[in-house]
C-alpha cells in the first residue's frame, strides 16, 4: 500500500476533478503491474495496472489507495475491471465518499467472490486525498496557504519592497508545492504589488496549474507580465458584482475566464462563496500565495487547511508590512490554531508546515 500511495502522489495536481489514485498488483511477492490516475483523470489507475499485469493478474492481489469506482463515466467501473481480470484479493485504503461509489465498488468485488480488505494505511491515504475528500464532503477544495515572512512576521518594507525575503532554495520549494496543486491563487493586492505570472518554473515539469486572481473590482495591473502570461494556461479572475463592465471586457478580451461571486457586507468578495465556486470548477487542491489581507479573510472564515510558513533570518520592525491582515480577535481563545506537522531548514531559511487543528 505504501508503494501504491507513492504512485498516487505522482498524480497530485494533474487529475482533478478525479482523485489521484495509485494501484499496485502483486502475486507471489512480485509486482506485476502498477498505475496512477492519468492527467485529466482518465484512465484510472486500476486498468493501467491490470494492462501491465495481463493474464498474470488472475489470482493476484490489487492494492488500491481508494475504493475502486462503481459508476460508468467515460470508461467502465474499475471494480468490474478487477472482477474480469480475476484478481483474488483487493486491499484498499479508503472508502470513496462520492455518492456514485460509497461502498458499491467494494460490494461489486465481494459479490464476485473477491476477498476485500479495507482501511490499510487509511490515515496516510486520507492525507494524500485531502483535496478530493474536501470537495466531495464540503463542496470546496483543500486550501494550502503559503507565507514568506521575516523573523518578525513581515512580508515587505514600508515602501512595499518584498523581493526577495527568502532565498532561492525556498523559492524552488514553493514551485514544487505549486506542482502538487490544481491551482495557484492570489488576491488583488499581491497582483498589483508583484504583477506575477504564477507559472510553474521547474525544469522537467510540464504541469500548468490553473492561475486564479481574486479581485472584487478587477482593478488589476494592465499591460504587464501577468496579463502577457494569460495565453500560457488557464487564467481565472474571480470578481464581485460591482466590477465595471469595461474591466470585465478588457480581461475577457485578454483571454481570462471571469467568474462573478457575491460580496460580503464590507464589499469584499465572500471567501465562502469563492471556495464554493472553486469547488464547482472541479478543483480539489488550491495553493494560495497571499497577500496579507486576502489571507486573513480566508483564515477568519476557517477555510485554510494548511499553512506553509517560510521564515527568513532578517528583521523589518514595526514599520514593515505585516504578513497577515486583521483577524478581528479580542480574546486569545478565539485565535485560529494550527499544529506543527513538519519543520526543515531549506537553504538559509526555515520551512514549517502547519495543519489546522480539529
From TrEMBL:
Transmembrane portions of the chain: none
Keyword Oxidoreductase attached: yes
InterPro entries, per database record: APOBEC/CMP_deaminase_Zn-bd (IPR016192), CMP_dCMP_dom (IPR002125), Cytidine_deaminase-like (IPR016193), DHFR-like_dom_sf (IPR024072), Eubact_RibD (IPR004794), RibD_C (IPR011549), RibDG_C (IPR002734), Riboflavin_Biosynth_HTPR (IPR050765)
Domain CMP/dCMP-type deaminase span(s) in chain numbering: 1-117
Domain of life from the UniProt record: Bacteria
Record: residues binding substrate: 162, 178, 198, 201, 289
Reaction catalyzed: 5-amino-6-(5-phospho-D-ribitylamino)uracil + NADP(+) = 5-amino-6-(5-phospho-D-ribosylamino)uracil + NADPH + H(+); 2,5-diamino-6-hydroxy-4-(5-phosphoribosylamino)-pyrimidine + H2O + H(+) = 5-amino-6-(5-phospho-D-ribosylamino)uracil + NH4(+)
Binding site for Zn(2+): 44, 69, 78
Binding site for NADP(+): 148, 164, 190, 194, 291-297
Cofactor binding summary note: Binds 1 zinc ion.
Keywords of this entry: Hydrolase, Metal-binding, Multifunctional enzyme, NADP, Oxidoreductase, Riboflavin biosynthesis, Zinc
Pathway, per record: Cofactor biosynthesis; riboflavin biosynthesis; 5-amino-6-(D-ribitylamino)uracil from GTP: step 3/4; Cofactor biosynthesis; riboflavin biosynthesis; 5-amino-6-(D-ribitylamino)uracil from GTP: step 2/4
Active site (record annotation): 46
GO biological process: riboflavin biosynthetic process
Cofactor: Zn(2+)
An example molecular function term from Gene Ontology annotations: 5-amino-6-(5-phosphoribosylamino)uracil reductase activity
EC number: 3.5.4.26, 1.1.1.193
Protein family: In the C-terminal section; belongs to the HTP reductase family. In the N-terminal section; belongs to the cytidine and deoxycytidylate deaminase family.
Cited function: Converts 2,5-diamino-6-(ribosylamino)-4(3h)-pyrimidinone 5'-phosphate into 5-amino-6-(ribosylamino)-2,4(1h,3h)-pyrimidinedione 5'-phosphate.
Protein name: Riboflavin biosynthesis protein RibD
Amino acid at each position: 500500500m505504501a508503494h501504491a500511495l507513492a504512485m498516487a502522489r505522482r498524480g497530485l495536481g494533474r487529475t482533478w476533478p478525479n482523485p489521484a489514485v495509485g494501484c499496485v498488483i502483486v502475486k507471489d511477492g512480485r509486482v506485476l503491474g502498477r498505475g496512477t490516475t492519468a492527467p485529466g483523470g482518465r484512465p484510472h489507475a486500476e486498468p493501467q495496472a491490470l494492462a501491465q499485469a495481463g493474464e498474470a493478474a488472475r489470482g493476484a492481489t490489487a492494492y488500491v489507495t481508494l475504493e475502486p469506482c462503481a459508476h460508468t463515466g467515460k470508461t467502465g467501473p474499475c471494480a468490474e475491471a478487477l472482477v474480469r481480470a480475476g484478481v483474488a484479493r483487493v486491499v484498499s485504503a479508503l472508502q470513496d465518499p462520492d455518492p456514485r461509489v460509497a461502498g458499491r465498488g467494494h460490494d461489486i468485488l465481494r459479490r464476485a467472490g473477491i476477498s476485500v480488505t479495507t482501511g490499510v494505511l487509511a490515515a496516510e491515504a486520507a492525507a494524500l486525498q485531502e483535496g478530493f475528500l474536501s470537495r466531495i464532503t464540503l463542496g470546496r477544495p483543500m486550501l494550502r496557504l503559503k507565507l514568506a515572512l521575516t523573523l518578525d512576521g513581515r512580508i515587505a518594507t514600508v515602501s512595499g519592497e518584498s523581493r526577495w525575503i527568502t532565498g532561492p532554495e525556498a523559492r524552488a520549494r514553493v514551485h514544487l508545492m505549486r506542482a502538487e496543486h490544481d491551482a495557484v491563487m492570489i488576491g488583488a493586492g499581491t497582483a498589483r504589488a508583484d504583477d506575477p505570472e504564477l507559472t510553474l518554473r521547474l525544469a522537467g515539469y510540464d504541469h500548468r496549474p490553473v492561475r486564479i486572481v481574486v479581485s472584487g473590482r478587477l482593478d488589476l495591473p494592465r499591460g504587464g507580465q501577468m496579463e502577457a502570461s494569460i495565453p500560457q494556461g488557464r487564467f481565472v479572475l474571480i470578481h464581485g458584482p460591482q466590477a465595471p463592465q469595461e474591466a470585465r471586457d478588457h480581461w475577457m478580451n485578454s483571454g481570462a475566464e471571469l467568474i462573478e461571486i457575491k460580496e460580503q457586507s464590507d464589499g469584499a468578495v465572500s471567501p465562502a462563496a469563492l471556495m464554493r465556486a472553486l469547488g464547482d470548477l472541479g478543483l480539489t487542491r488550491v495553493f494560495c500565495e497571499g497577500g496579507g489581507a486576502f489571507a486573513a479573510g480566508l483564515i477568519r472564515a476557517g477555510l485554510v487547511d494548511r499553512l506553509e510558513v517560510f521564515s527568513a533570518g532578517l528583521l523589518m520592525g514595526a514599520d514593515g508590512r505585516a504578513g497577515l491582515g486583521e483577524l478581528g480577535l479580542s480574546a486569545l481563545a478565539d485565535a485560529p490554531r494550527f499544529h506543527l506537522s513538519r519543520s526543515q531548514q531549506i537553504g538559509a531559511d526555515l520551512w514549517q508546515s502547519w495543519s489546522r487543528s480539529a
